[in-house]
Design brief:
The complex is a heterodimer of chains A (359) and B (322). By secondary structure, chain A is an alpha/beta fold. Chain A is 37% helix and 18% strand. Chain B folds into 2 domains: 137 residues, 2-Layer Sandwich (60s Ribosomal Protein L30, Chain: A), CATH 3.30.1330.10; 159 residues, PurM-like C-terminal domain (Phosphoribosyl-aminoimidazole Synthetase, Chain A, domain 2). Chain B has 9 helices and 13 strands. Classes of the chains: A alpha/beta (359), B alpha+beta (322).
């Protein structure tokens, strides 16, 4: 398949692995921030190709994983209302809340629909004027512009029954917070899709303030291995900078139109991250001028008290401090059929990827 | 109801056993072992590129018999029809079943029809059961009890067509694609292979749960290792493209005309040659082997040369966020 096979070329992969083996010195810890990277790394079996002294850590970039349990509980509470249709990305439906999940509510009769984009949710709203359609807005800078565009469209079309429950987040605060907390990272494999929107400027602090290497990577095996090689070169030379490996998509200035729409609809708010707690200006709240689409403000609902699962170390796994195998629940109580923590649910979650590909 | 039976079912399924219209079909079966199977078919939409629920109901049951090493002979057909289903749709489905049964050389010998109120079923549900003759020399195939390390794993063609055709037909993700379901009866292909005398140790059709699920089942029930080479597993480009875009793994996507055979290594060439001579085996390939190491585990040698395990899918495949 064109534009895919080239990046899965066995000879190129072999060549890159050889180059990596040649330049790696000592123990190196690299963190892939994005859940898409975690998934690709495990799916292609990349750890089995790399030298043992390179540790790949999975970071906080799986949207489902960092989302608070309260958000799920609120979505569950909404789904129980008779006049509500929940429109959501597929990953979210199986995430356990305090006492239920959207999947469970769906089996009891709630109207929960899987969508691929906010536009589909808006279509559902138009087809069901007697219902309130709540789109669950999660994800980072990759999905936030889409949600923003959806809200703008809803405003233009006067879709008064369309709402968004936003838990959108931005990436850089968590990347900084990790190093502030003392997690040892020599280099970041920075998220390719987030950077397509934001450009490379948002990571400037990583090399400048923290002295940590940073390469924005694509999602195919050749991309990831080339990024590892580029990181090793920065580490060896001790010259840290933000480099773009994923040049076919990422421009240094990003996608200005998407950024504009995002800024018009959302404003930075303090937000809660699993594993981190509240990080300042790390979330995206809906601005006042679009508040009539904000489910949080427009549709009051009673949400149960958040109950935390005992023994789950998703938080530490998201910070790269622990690996899934370090968790007592991993593979036993917590598995893909009965996930305890959010990291076991999404394909982008570290526990899910380790469980499925690397047990 | 009598008109429905005579005008529709007898007209299309016409055969000597059915036209007796007794409470039971009276069958001729040779002495010896018999294979017997049943399955219910519910699918949305009932018509899809490459088939319909009727064709699926015949192929599914024929294939379950065929992969047990049996020669399918008779099938039953029971219909649960939602009130309001257009008559021409029902006729199209019944005629497609008749056509498929004729192709597979099986007789539809008895059946039943119930009509339920609107909303009590989704358009049409079909149950088929089937009986096949089982040669005593093939009784080991269903259980796979003779499988051993070193045996080769053969697949008859490209995977994931059925599941992705259904996704596209449901307009999932607004796709416009040429993907056709691979829904087909495999009994003639299986017969050709068995007639060569090749030592077939195990067969399974890779339906729901896809190829990956069959690999996991093989690994678990014989405590052998399964090693699959990703590069050798055929996947059509249009199917791969749609899977990539939607975030699906083709290994877990359903097939309705694909089977896996475990074959004695010395008989591999013979089996591949025979399959390639059949229209449903043109892209047959050896995709892996059974290994003494990692018993109970299915491992994938990835296209780039890495290794990872193949796990059972929990629940449905869910599309990813980004």
């Amino acid at each position: 398949m064109k534009y895919i096979d080239e990046y899965r070329n066995k000879a190129l992969v072999k060549n890159l692995v050889k180059k990596i083996e040649d330049v790696v010195r000592g123990e190196v810890s690299l963190m892939e921030v994005c859940g898409g990277h975690t998934w690709a790394i495990q799916k292609f079996g990349i750890p089995s190709l790399l030298p043992e002294n390179i540790r790949l850590l999975s970071g906080p970039g799986c949207p489902v994983c960092v989302t608070s349990k309260r958000f799920i509980d609120q979505a569950v509470a909404y789904s129980r209302l008779d006049d509500v249709i929940i429109a959501t990305f597929g990953d979210l439906v199986r995430v356990p809340g305090s006492s239920s999940s959207l999947d469970l509510e769906k089996s009891k009769g709630a109207d929960v629909r899987m969508v691929y984009s906010v536009i589909e949710a808006l279509d559902i709203a138009k087809k069901h004027p007697d219902k309130k359609v709540i789109f669950l807005g999660i994800g980072f800078e990759t999905t936030a512009p889409g949600t923003a565009a959806g809200i703008k469209n809803a405003a233009a079309q006067e879709a008064d029954n369309f709402f968004v429950l936003s838990s959108h987040k931005v990436m850089p605060p968590a990347m900084g917070a990790l190093i502030d907390e003392g997690v040892k990272i020599d280099g970041y494999i920075a998220p390719g899709h987030v950077s397509t929107i934001t450009g490379s400027g948002i990571y400037a602090d990583i090399p400048e303030k923290y002295g940590v290497a940073c390469v924005i990577s694509g999602f195919e095996p050749v991309d990831i291995l080339q990024s590892v090689y580029m990181l090793l070169q920065q580490i060896n030379k001790q010259v840290y900078t933000v480099e773009i490996q994923y040049r076919r998509t990422v421009k240094p200035e990003g996608n200005q139109l998407a950024l504009q729409i995002m800024d018009e609809v959302f404003e930075p708010v303090d937000d809660w991250w699993r594993g981190f707690g509240i990080l300042p200006a790390s979330g995206l709240g809906i601005r006042d001028r679009y508040s009539r689409f904000d489910a949080n403000r427009m549709i009051p609902v009673e949400v149960e008290e958040t109950a935390d699962e005992k023994g789950c170390i998703c938080g530490e796994i998201l910070k790269g401090v622990k690996k899934p195998h370090d968790c007592k629940l991993f593979g036993k109580v917590c598995n893909t059929t009965n996930p305890v923590g959010a990291c076991m649910v999404s394909h982008e979650g570290a526990c899910n990827a380790y469980f499925r590909f690397n047990a | 109801m009598h008109t429905l039976i005579s005008d529709l079912f007898i007209k299309h399924f016409d055969n000597a056993v059915l036209t007796q219209q007794g409470d039971s079909a009276i069958l001729d079966l040779p002495p010896g072992k018999t294979a017997f199977t049943t399955d219910s078919y519910v699918i949305d939409p009932v018509f899809f590129p490459g088939g319909d629920i009727g064709k699926l109901a015949v192929c599914g049951t024929v294939n379950d018999l065929a992969v047990a090493g049996a020669m399918p002979r008779y099938i039953t057909a029971a219909f649960i029809i939602e009130e309001g289903l257009p008559m021409q749709d029902l006729e199209r489905i019944v005629s497609s079943m008749a056509k498929e049964a004729a192709k597979a050389n099986v007789m539809i010998v008895t059946g039943d029809t119930k009509v339920v109120n609107k909303g009590q079923c989704d358009k049409l549900f079909i149950n088929t059961a089937g009986i096949g003759e089982l040669d005593p020399s093939h009784t080991h195939i269903a259980s796979g009890e003779t499988m051993e390390a070193g045996d080769k794993i053969i697949l008859n063609g490209p995977i994931a067509q059925h599941g992705m055709a259904i996704m596209a037909a449901r307009n999932f993700g607004n796709f416009n694609t040429s993907i056709q379901s691979d829904c087909n009866c495999l009994n003639h292909l299986v017969r050709d292979v068995l007639n060569t005398g090749a030592r077939i140790k195990f067969m399974r059709d890779a339906t729901r749960g896809g190829l990956a699920t069959v690999m996991c089942e093989m690994a678990s029930h014989r405590e052998l290792g399964v090693l699959v080479n990703e590069e050798d597993v055929p996947v059509d480009d249009n199917v791969r493209g749609m899977c990539e875009l939607l975030g699906f793994d083709p290994f877990y996507v359903a097939n309705e005309g694909k089977l896996v055979m475990v074959v004695h290594p010395e008989d591999t060439d013979k089996v591949i040659r025979t399959m390639k001579n059949h229209p449903l085996g043109k892209q047959a390939a050896v995709i892996g082997e059974l290994t003494p190491d990692h018993p109970g585990q299915a491992t994938l040698q990835t296209a780039i040369g890495g290794k990872r395990i193949i796990d059972m899918l929990a629940g449905e495949q869910l599309p990813r966020i980004c």
